[in-house]
Structure formats: C-alpha cells, structure tokens
Prior knowledge:
Blueprint: E1 2-9, H1 14-29, E2 32-40, H2 46-51, E3 62-66, H3 76-81, E4 85-89, H4 105-109, E5 114-117, H5 120-126, E6 134-136, E7 158-163, H6 172-185, E8 193-199, H7 208-211, E9 215-219, H8 224-233, E10 236-239, H9 248-255, E11 259-263, E12 278-280, E13 282-287, E14 290-298, H10 300-312, H11 314-332, H12 334-346, H13 350-362
Helix pairs in contact: 6-10, 12-13
Amino acid sequence: MRVLIQTSLSPYSGYGNDGIGIARAFEDWGAEVVLLPTTVQPPLPEDVAQMLTRPVDGVFDLYINHTDPSNLAVTPDVKAVAKYTVGWTMWEYSNFKNLTGRSTLRKRLNGFDSVVAYDEISRGCLEPYVKGEVLTVQGGFWPQDWPEMERDWHSDRFGFCMVGALTERKDPFVAIKAFSELKQEFPEEFAPAELHLKTNTPGLHSGIEKVIDKVRIHYAVWPDEILRSFYAAQHCLLAPSRGEGKNMPALEFQSTGGAVIATNWGGHRQWLNEDCNYALDYTLAPVAEFPETYNARASVEHLKSLMLHVFRNRTEARIKGQHAARTIPAQASWPAVIERLLITISRQSEAGKNVWASAQQVRRSSDGDS
C-alpha cells in the first residue's frame, strides 16, 4: 500500500504535529509513505526525515491532504495518480464566514473522495459545502510517550497548569482570573494551589507572577523528558479554550493520569467523559470583525467551581485520572485513529473498501514486524 500525504511537518503546531503523527502511523502500519510537505520545521524524527527522500512518483492507493480548510484542495496531478483522495481538517469556529478562500471552498472540497472532520463542530461547518457525507475522525497522539505516572494527590502543594501556545484561542486569562479570585476568596484554604503556564508563544507578561501569588510562567521549548517531569509535578490541566480541533496536551496529560478541566465545545467533546475528566460550561460569542461567527467563552465562575472541587476532592480527581489513563490511549492513539479512518472511509464507497482491503494486506503482524 502506498500513501501520499500532503501536510505540515512541525513539532511546534497542531497541524504539524499531527502531520508527523499521521506519517509515522501509516509507516508503522506497513504502508510506504511519501510526503508532500506544505511546511517543514526541524527537528523532525529521523524516520519522518527519511520519508522526505522518497520520490513523488508512481501510483498511490491513498492520498491525504491534512491542512486547514483555506488550503484544502486536491490538484489534477494528484487525482491522476491517487486511487482515493481524502481531505482531513478541523475548524475552531461556528461557521466559515471568517475563512480566507471561502468562495472556492465548495469546489475544492468536492474534488475529494472523502472529506473528514476532526469533530462535530468542524463537520457542521463543512457540511453545507460538501455534496456527500462529511466523516468524523479526530487526530491522535502517542500514548507510549506519556505513560501513567505516580502523583502525590495529597501533598502540601497542588498544581494546576496550562500547556501549549497560550494565545487568545487558548484563553489563558480565564484560568488566571479564576485562579486569582480563588486565591482572594479562600486565602488560607487555597494557599497550597499553584498555577503553572507553560507556553512557547509570547503574550503572558512576567509581571503576572508578581501580582498573583504562586503563578509561574514557563516560556520555553522543552524536550519530551522535561515535559513529562512537568506533567508529573502537576495535578490538573486547565483547557478553557475558545475552540480546539483536539488539544494534544490535554490528551497527553490524561494519559499520564492527571485530571483535566476542558471547555465543553469543539474537539474537546470527542473525548470529554464524566468518568475521566471535567466538562467546563461556556457561552458562544462573536469573533472580532465577524459578528455572525462564534466560538466559545469558558465560564470563569464554573471554572472556579470545578477547580475548587478538584482541589477539595482529590481522591475523586485521582480516580478520574486513572480512568483517563486507561481510556484515552485506547481511544486516541495514532494506530487506533488510522484504523478508524480507514474503516470509516471503507463504509462510504466501494473505492473506500478497496483502500481498506489494501491496508489489511500490508498491516504489520502482531509479532512486531517493523
């Protein structure tokens, strides 16, 4: 089975990280992967870098264009060499009225054999522009990199955290405000609580640390081993995002057994489960300059309530984290996601069934062939 993947390759962005994950997962499956990168940012895993040396020639059983909706398209040259074409994307808003290139979207999307959304909100945005059914398969992560960890849930300190490019979309100031108000309202009880904000994007002023007790900003790019140590030192990850396709740090943190509070909208809904995590209330609000396009605004009051609940009910939070550590990897590992993608497109058409048949022929044997 030969797979041509057009995607970003970068460890520093959502699409880029997922592009790397998709390529590696298909290669692990047993496919020959050829890459058409839209962007490349090192460092790349050695096996992915090796894929870049392969020529883009011959016939492909499957082509995947994994990118944002403004760039999603399949060219005539690709159509001529690919037996089946898939557009795979996500969107963090209520519609496409703020999308660059919306006037050509319908034509571009209908060039694919299948259009796949990460989540139900993205699917709802895509449906008016696609003739057939829009499929839903969320991207994944590598749980073996984020094993379950022992935490002292009843230690003298209690760590809340946020991780990622903490821009406006991630809404870190909702977490900061909630944390600050809890410090003021429960000065003695909440004294052991800390809030650690790990980001690789400018925007959080270091002066926040001086104004609010036990807020720490970590502006750095960390290798996985340091991030694992950071996760192990924290108890609850906060994700009051305005919109997400997936939220990889939340999946990673749950894989380690930590508790997660996340906005109950967008990609979070694909994995939010009362047995494993805490769903955060929100309202929808218009996006600047686009009054008919909405995304979520997490409730500060509900976030305060959930943070205080987790802080006071640590055994419950630990049990949820343990459930998440067993549930999330099985649901969202890249191998599981790729299998779900292949099975999903096989149900859409005969051509999709042929892709699944080709995939089954090359699938790695259970004895670890690699």
